C-alpha cells in the first residue's frame, strides 16, 4: 500500500471542506492548509489600500508583493490559525461580508492566481498536507495522492454560513447570504483560469444532512483503503 501524503479537497463555499480538512489533518498529523485564506487576505489588503477592484494590474502587482503568513493560532478564540498580512493579524477581518463579496473578483485574475499558486505549491510539495481550495486537484496539485470534491446544496451552505456569522455575534441576513453565495459560485465556476470543478479523478462527496464527523469517517475510510 502506498502512503497517502498529499490530500486535495476542493468544493464550493461553505460545503464543509475547511472543517473536514482540519479534522482530517489533525487525525493524520498533517499540515492543514486552507488556500482560500490567501485569496481572502489579498482581498482584504486590496480593500484596505482602496485599490480599484477592476484595476487588474494594480491588484496583480499587490499579489506579487504582499506578505501573507499563516501561523499556528496565538489565541483560543475559535481560530484554526493566525493570518498575518504584512505582519498585521487579520484573522477575523478576512471573514467579513465585504471580503466575501469581493474575493471572487480578485481571485479570478490570472496574475493573482499565478502568485498564489507558486506559494501554495511550495508548501504542498513538502507533503504530509491536506490542502483545501477550489483548484487544488485540478491545477495546484494535480499529482495529489488522493482528491476529494465536497459539495452541498446552496440552501444548506448558506444556512451554515449564516449560523457561523451569528455564532460570532455578527449581523446576518439569510436571503442576502444565499444571493451572495450564488453569485460567488457562479464567478468561481465560470472564470477563465482554474474554475471550480472536480478533477477527473476526484472522489465526489455530498455533505447535505451529514454531521462533520460522518463526512470525516467516510473520507478516512477512503484514505485508509487507497
Ligand atoms: O474557501 P473560501 O470561501 O474561504 O474561499 C474564498 C474565495 O477564494 C473563493 O470565493 C474563491 C477563492 N479561492 C480560489 O479561487 N482558489 C482556491 N484554491 C481557494 C479559494
What does this structure look like?
This protein has 226 residues and is α/β, with parallel strands linked by helices. It has a single domain (6-225), classed as P-loop containing nucleotide triphosphate hydrolases (Rossmann fold, 3-Layer(aba) Sandwich). 49% of the residues lie in helices and 15% in strands. The chain contains nine helices and eight strands. It has helices spanning 17-28, 36-48, 56-65, 97-107, 110-124, 136-140, 154-167, 174-190, 212-225, and strands at residues 6-10, 31-34, 68-71, 82-85, 88-89, 129-133, 146-151, 203-206. The chain has a five-stranded parallel β-sheet. A three-stranded antiparallel β-sheet has the order 3-4-5, covered by helices on one side. Helix 1 (17-28) crosses helix 9 and helix 7 crosses helix 8 (174-190). The termini are close together. 38% of the residues are buried. The structure holds 2'-deoxycytidine-5'-monophosphate. 2'-deoxycytidine-5'-monophosphate binds at residues 13, 35-36, 39-40, 103-104, 107, 133-136, 184, 188.
Keywords:
five-stranded parallel β-sheet, 226 residues, 49% helix, 8 strands, Rossmann fold, globular, binds 2'-deoxycytidine-5'-monophosphate, alpha/beta, 9 helices
In what order do the strands lie side by side in the largest sheet?
Answer: 2-6-1-7-8
CATH superfamily: P-loop containing nucleotide triphosphate hydrolases
> What's the average pLDDT?
93
The percentage of residues in β strands lies in 15-25%
CATH architecture: 3-Layer(aba) Sandwich
Helix proportion of residues, in percent?
Answer: 40-55%
Please summarize the sheet with the most strands.
Answer: 5 strands, parallel
Compute the gyration radius: what is it? 17 Å
Ends: how far apart? 8 Å
Amino acid at each position: 500500500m502506498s502512503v497517502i501524503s498529499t490530500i486535495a479537497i476542493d468544493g464550493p463555499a461553505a460545503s464543509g471542506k475547511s472543517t473536514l480538512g482540519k479534522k482530517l489533518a489533525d487525525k493524520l498529523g498533517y499540515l492543514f492548509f486552507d488556500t482560500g485564506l490567501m485569496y481572502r487576505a489579498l482581498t482584504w489588503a486590496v480593500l484596505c489600500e482602496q485599490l480599484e477592484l477592476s484595476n487588474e494590474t494594480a491588484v496583480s502587482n499587490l499579489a506579487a508583493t504582499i506578505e501573507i503568513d499563516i501561523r499556528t493560532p496565538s489565541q483560543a478564540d475559535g481560530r484554526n490559525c493566525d493570518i498575518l498580512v504584512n505582519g498585521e493579524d487579520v484573522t477575523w477581518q478576512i471573514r467579513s461580508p465585504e471580503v466575501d463579496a469581493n474575493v471572487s473578483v480578485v481571485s479570478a485574475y490570472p496574475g493573482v492566481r499565478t502568485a498564489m499558486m507558486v506559494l501554495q505549491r511550495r508548501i504542498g510539495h513538502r507533503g504530509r498536507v491536506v490542502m483545501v481550495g477550489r483548484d487544488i486537484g485540478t491545477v495546484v496539485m494535480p499529482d495529489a495522492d488522493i482528491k476529494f470534491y465536497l459539495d452541498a446544496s446552496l440552501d444548506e451552505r448558506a444556512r451554515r454560513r449564516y449560523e457561523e456569522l451569528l455564532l460570532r455575534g455578527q449581523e446576518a441576513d439569510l436571503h442576502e447570504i444565499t444571493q451572495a453565495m450564488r453569485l460567488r459560485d457562479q464567478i468561481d465556476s465560470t472564470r477563465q483560469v482554474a474554475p471550480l470543478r472536480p478533477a477527473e479523478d476526484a472522489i465526489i462527496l455530498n455533505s447535505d444532512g451529514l454531521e462533520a464527523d460522518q463526512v470525516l469517517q467516510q473520507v478516512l475510510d477512503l484514505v485508509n483503503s487507497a
